[in-house]
Amino acid sequence: MALIVQKYGGSSVADAASIKRVAKRVAEAKRAGHDVVVVVSAMGDTTDELIDLAQQITPMPPQREMDILLTAGERISMSLLAMAIHNLGVDAKSFTGQQAGVITDESYGKARIIDVTPSRIRQTLAQGSVAIVAGFQGVNPTTNDVTTLGRGGSDTTAVALAASLKADVCEIYTDVDGVFTADPRIVPNARKLDRVSYDEMLELAASGAKVLVLRCVEYARRYGVPIHVRSSFTTHTGTLVTDQPAAEGEIVEQPIIAGVAHDRSEAKITVVGVPDVPGKAARIFQVVAGAGVNIDMIVQNVSVAATGLTDISFTLPATDGAAATAALTEHQPDIGFASLQYDDTIGKLSLIGAGMKSHPGVSARFFAALSEAGINIEMISTSEIRISVVTRADSLDDAVRAVHTAFDLDSTEDEAVVYGGTGR
Amino acid sequence: MALIVQKYGGSSVADAASIKRVAKRVAEAKRAGHDVVVVVSAMGDTTDELIDLAQQITPMPPQREMDILLTAGERISMSLLAMAIHNLGVDAKSFTGQQAGVITDESYGKARIIDVTPSRIRQTLAQGSVAIVAGFQGVNPTTNDVTTLGRGGSDTTAVALAASLKADVCEIYTDVDGVFTADPRIVPNARKLDRVSYDEMLELAASGAKVLVLRCVEYARRYGVPIHVRSSFTTHTGTLVTDQPAAEGEIVEQPIIAGVAHDRSEAKITVVGVPDVPGKAARIFQVVAGAGVNIDMIVQNVSVAATGLTDISFTLPATDGAAATAALTEHQPDIGFASLQYDDTIGKLSLIGAGMKSHPGVSARFFAALSEAGINIEMISTSEIRISVVTRADSLDDAVRAVHTAFDLDSTEDEAVVYGGTGR
Lengths: 424, 424
Prior knowledge:
Two copies of one chain form a homodimer. The first copy, chain A, is of the alpha/beta class. In chain A, about 35% of the residues lie in helices and about 25% in strands. Chain A is built from twelve helices and 20 strands. In chain A, the strands form five sheets. Chain A has an eight-stranded mixed sheet with strand order 3-6-2-1-9-11-12-10, with helices on both faces. Chain A has a four-stranded antiparallel sheet with strand order 13-18-20-19, with helices on both faces. A four-stranded antiparallel sheet of chain A has the order 15-16-14-17, with helices on one face. In chain A, strand 7 (about 135-140) and strand 8 form a beta hairpin. The longest helix of chain A is centred in the N-terminal third of the chain and has 24 residues, at about 65-85. The interface of A and B includes residues 16, 54, 62 and 96 of A.
């Protein structure tokens, strides 16, 4: 008997029929003798509909009220799921984030979990019931107001609850079969990974793989929570995200490379004609950070000796492009650069694998593959277990396929693959 | 400067445009210098849609989960209204029933308010903000679970908050202009009452007038909360429900009769051939009460001496008809009656007025009017300030009009009247 936390996203509970299907799955786990806690997102498009309603009222809703509004979505899905499970003869009770003890800071709209005190959940499990918990929400204890956790909030709720309850596994149910060596929409013969380490999963998530958000993986790594990413539409085993050694007798493939991730959401800013004196680069990044913008990759060109000027390029989320250029333009006089170039037609490709630490030749093979495919590389950055390059957006798909093939990641079987975005 | 509690029903906040209109009204009251607390129902059909969703999941949803589900509706409307008021430059904060301190018993689906501890509401008013409160909901303090208050729950929330905050008035906004001498759909020249006493309003509500529910008026009378029933579509003065004497110089009509109410929701059960021995009637009403059914009017026929048998008729809500007949049939052997007759084609008409206590001749005029209109009377019951009769359902409208005219209640002006059902 295990303690299992299951998380179902919005597409898994989109309507009454889907909720009944999920209920059946939950009831099966319970009947198999496990203690089951279920974290659930809002039904299908509910959250978007609520955001749309708010936009009809005002373009700038107060964030406290926005959070109260949005948490209505999970309140609906969690109570319906509890009813559906109850209807199968299995006792179930639903709890809001507050009732489940999800304590956050007061950053409405993107609150961070600071503590989890799930005494009511423990009590419910002890009574032999299934506990359903609203994902994506918590409570700010100083004012007793509800908060929402932002993107990937329900996954984070599930992992945080699993950590606090010392669950054996946190199952993240989604509309894909697991974590793949590449996005199957681009690489149709991408392979599902059986296992991936926290570090690799962190790099994959940070590099554009959308199946899990970064903060959820960070949380899981910090508390050693094994995550099982799997499909809610099949009973296939998915991908286990863990650092635990495989059980004795279990044959686990230990590939050099975990996968190829890509990201089309970034833009590049080039600051042209920066005086090549100490402190100028630091000043630029201070200004950008001051605008609340996170920088990803940075390249400083070699200074042209005759002019004493250099160019500095960096990438950032395209959604922060306007804020960053406005801040830099405001500080143009004191930084003293000549001009700004903004480019949002770039793509980023990342090769990730814990094995590359100990396997020389990975970069050589990587750059050879890109070169043979005729891909022009604009920026490069590396970590111990990752190589990333920036290319033109329209050559990104070709680049992903070339690298995927070069590292023998292509599947030899015909795997039936369903792939889509994940809920929040 | 006054402290005003305003309550808006579902039809007043049915969509974004309606919410903005209500926001304007709230902002005007605030700008006029008043402290304003707003109680709001769920938007338009939200509650019915949520009930429908639950029905798609299971025919018998656990009531705790049903209450969690339904309270999502007010969570949406209250946060949207706070946003809309905020957008007009007036600070507003929304609160769930729990946050507003609405403490109830644990009767999910029809909880009773046992205490109101509105410290956060007082604090919000002291900060100069408008407080928005979700109607229809509270919290069961022993488990910290949300409860719903049942029919008319938002009106009751508003009156309970007004009592606890010692508000100067509780304004119930609805889609009619106030309390009328009769339902204007039946009597087009019914008059709006300027004032009505708690006792009269209680009798009106109990006799089928739908503008306010009984428990809300009971609460208001107990705590002396003046209720102002008015339209959210006009700025007309509505009807003041109060026992306070009129202000000096204020000319208040003190009519003998407050109005004529009607009710089509009852049914009549006749227990035929009951042995006319002591204790049989008590046994019948014990059995019916044991099935959770409230009886309204009772008539026992004169016993036929030869047989020693009598008939007992009573009225009850038609929705309880099945439960009552089942319970009686089960106990037929020990009660010893011959048969049951069930009739749901009856109507009830009630004439209500505090003045009838001191004005002889009211009943004579009442029965004369019905007789002249050719209305057959099946049952009669009276209180100090009310006479009720049961008629055939299809002669009820004629009966209402005849009595309304006989007591000179018909309006001489052409009043523009909008009349419809009220929200919960």
